[in-house]
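Exercise 3.2. Students should predict the tertiary structure of the chain below and write it as structure tokens, then compare their answer with the key that follows.

Predict this chain's 3D structure.
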Amino acid sequence: MREEAKLWLKFAKESYEDALYNWEGHRYGNTCFCCQQALEKILKAILTEEEKLPPKSHDLIHLIKLSKIKINKKQAEELRAITRHYFTVRYPDLNKKFYRNRKITEKTFIKMKEFYQWFLKELKK
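Answer key:
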């Protein structure tokens, strides 16, 4: 694996672990932010491994379109929803509304873990 891809993967793993830590600590806004970051960084690892320069973008759909990974409409919707957390968590009114309890953020956390494992397998091919 390319050295730069290894760095992106290291950062992705840290964000994944941060999401888990925040989830267990009931910090749901931070959980969702770290979920988005984990997926963004692992996609940038994939792009780097594919010898593509990862753009300075937080849009998971944009990043996946640049990669060789193919997704269906449902997966695209799920990734769009996770992408939005990068922005909504930063605003106190939205943070309070969307991240007030475990049930609201659970889907994001579960989906992030599924995508992360899939993308990790893609990276190691």
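Discussion points: Residues 3-24 form the longest helix (22 residues). The chain has a mean pLDDT of 94.
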